[in-house]
Amino acid sequence: MLYELSQLLDINLFGYISVRAGIAFFIAFALTILVIPKYLSWALAKNANQPISKYVPAHEGKRHTPTMGGAVFITATLIAALLTVDLGNLYIWGGLITLVGFGLVGFKDDLGKVMAGDNLEGLTPKGKMFLQAVIAVLATGVLLYTGFPTEFYVPFLKTPLFDLGYAAIPFWILVFLATTNAVNLTDGLDGLATVPSIIALVTLGLITYITGHAIFSQYLLVPNIKGVGEVTILAVALSGGLLGFLWYNCYPAEIFMGDTGSLAIGGFIAYLAILGKSEVLLILIGLIFVIET
Length: 293
Description:
Number of helices: 12
Shape: globular
Strand order of the largest sheet: 1-2
Number of strands: 2
Largest sheet: 2 strands, antiparallel
Strand content: under 5%
Structural class: mainly alpha
Distance between the termini: 40 Å
Radius of gyration: 19 Å
Helix content: 55-70%
């Protein structure tokens, strides 16, 4: 909306990605902070609580803590993004497909567990992996449709190591699946994934912004890919939503994000890494996820 408004009324201020990213951050942050108390009341009334595995009796005290909080900050992120991004940018749609798609997979898994009251219920491992692969294929399809370059870069080299060609398709899908499940495995009852996710989103969001900036990318010797910088707004909005969520998720946690949040975050982190040609750097940026996995 703001981008279209800037074009219609010739307001240059809203044309800047940095300005719209800042606005998106505060919208997502404020919405999450304001909505979570209402969600907590609803979740407690409906017994939408975190099921505890019988194999982890030490976590029994967390049984009545609401889960699926990821639905709140994802919704806040979407509202913030739709108000600030350029919806004519196809990379934005790839990001939205990734965020919503993986979030829905997690939501279906969480819902099954909550309704059964058993942490072992929900989607089967094969079923979850299949649905994740479907979303990864869709996001990869968007990248291919945009003509996204398939060159493979490594840190500190200004030229690509080689061109993946059609091998980029399985490679990108692998990045999606590996990152999504790494974040999912890292997320524990104490919200272990929240802070590392914010760090990863901010770092990769900055790299994506630089990659999409004609001058900064040339100065810093990184590949310049026109249009990808717009996705920075989505990354910053998600960071804002997560920061608001952290207020209620830090120890002792009042709410958990569930697979709804962790799968969505992991998928979007993977998308950012691919856009910024930072797949190798992702191992370092997401080191905590790698270690926990």
